[in-house]
Amino acid sequence: MKKILFIIPLLAGIFIFFNFSEPSAYKDGDIIFQATAGDRGKAIQLATKSKYNHCGVLFNENGKWVVYEAVQPVKKTSLSAFNSRGQGSVMRLKNKVLKPEDIEKLKNVFKGYEHKNYDDAFNWSDDRIYCSELVYKLYNNGLNIKLCEPRKLRDFDLSNPLVKAQLNLQYGNHIPLEEPMVAPGDISASALLEAVK
Questions:
Q1: Closest alpha carbon to 90 in 4, 15, 188, 162
Q2: Which of 96, 152, 169, 173 is the most exposed place for a label (fewest CB within 10 A)?
């Protein structure tokens, strides 16, 4: 019985170590990517030829990791809630260490987008914001870093039946093929980023 009582807290300690050791490698400003479920998310993956369909930016606030993300509405989400939708992969800038003033700039830009509605039409205006647009604009407007080049909607692969169905559902006969867009896959493929080990 004594052995069992000793083993239980030992196992609990091992579980806690492995469960929480990974986020210790994160840094403020890291970009987290994930694949969420559903037809819309799958269509994004097919059109962009990426395993990702969502992304956000990580910050440690009051000792807890949160993700600044554009869902409905644009908001801060706990890392655990974010990961419950699909486990994330994390990347960061290769050749630049973000200083405290850089982090503040990112956060200040976010304040201008926080609580705005999610942009399910993927327009480039600031009236409504979608996930990869938020990440792109935080870095571009806050740090003058262009993570990737925006592409026009027509530049993505729109041939898959699921993609066509989602486009028809969203736009009907008025698909904005010339609209500039940034996809999570475009950002994850950026030459400026590297995976966090």
A1: 188
A2: 173
The pair of structure tokens assigned to 89 is 């992969």
Nearest to 79 by CA among 23, 4, 156, 138: 23
Does pLDDT of 20 surpass 50? no
- Tally Cβ neighbours within 10 Å of residue 9: 9
Q: How far apart are CA 25 and CA 196, in angstroms?
A: 7
What Cα–Cα distance (Å) separates residue 178 from each residue in 53, 91, 125, 134, 151? Answer: 21, 29, 14, 20, 9
The DSSP-derived string for 76-120 is EEEHHHHHTTS--EEEEESS-PPPHHHHHHHHHHHHHHTTPPB-T
What fold characterizes domain 26-195? endopeptidase fold (from Nostoc punctiforme) (3.90.1720)
Helix, strand, or coil here: 135?
helix
Of 19, 192, 161, give the one whose Cα is nearest residue 93. Answer: 192
- Phi first, then psi, for residue 195 (nearest 5°) are -70, 145
> Which residue bears the tokens 């041939």?
159
pLDDT digits (tens, 9 = 90+) for 142-158: 999 999 999 999 999 99
| Structure confidence by residue, pLDDT tens digits, 123-134 | 999 999 999 999
